[in-house]
TrEMBL record:
Coiled coil: none annotated. InterPro entries: LD_TPept_cat_dom. It holds the Pfam family YkuD. It comes from Bradyrhizobium ottawaense. This is L,D-peptidoglycan transpeptidase YkuD (ErfK/YbiS/YcfS/YnhG family). Residues 14-116 form the L,D-TPase catalytic domain.
Length: 117
């Protein structure tokens, strides 16, 4: 689980937690050896940053999608994250309200299986 420590206190959860910094990003390039993994980018370096101006990524739960093995082009950055105000579409993720996210986080642990059907 990742969260914006500059906006929120650490949520209650049994999941390991990591504060999102300005250098945190996600590799979505299927040609890169870090495809579908969290990465660190230097200032000025382009990439899919996790620290966003909006609130969608204030809390992120990584879904174990396309990780063992990682297959290029089979999907990257599939997260549970906060929803837009109008519940607009995501780019393949699952989104929810902040209250639903905090309630879910209180129940999740490292061995929890999330099945999306």
């Amino acid at each position: 689980m990742w969260w914006r420590g500059d906006r929120h206190s650490r949520p209650q959860s049994f999941l390991p937690a990591r504060i999102i910094t300005g250098e945190d990003a996600w590799c979505e390039d299927p040609r890169d050896r870090h495809y579908n993994q969290g990465i660190r980018l230097d200032e000025g370096q382009g990439g899919d940053r996790l620290k966003r101006a909006d609130h969608l990524y204030d809390f992120i739960i990584e879904i174990d999608h396309n990780t063992r093995p990682r297959v290029a082009g089979r999907g990257s950055a599939v997260f549970l994250h906060l929803a837009r105000d109008n519940f607009g579409p995501t780019a393949g993720c699952v989104s929810m309200t902040k209250s639903a996210m905090l309630q879910l986080l209180r129940r999740l642990g490292p061995r929890t299986r999330i099945i999306i059907g």
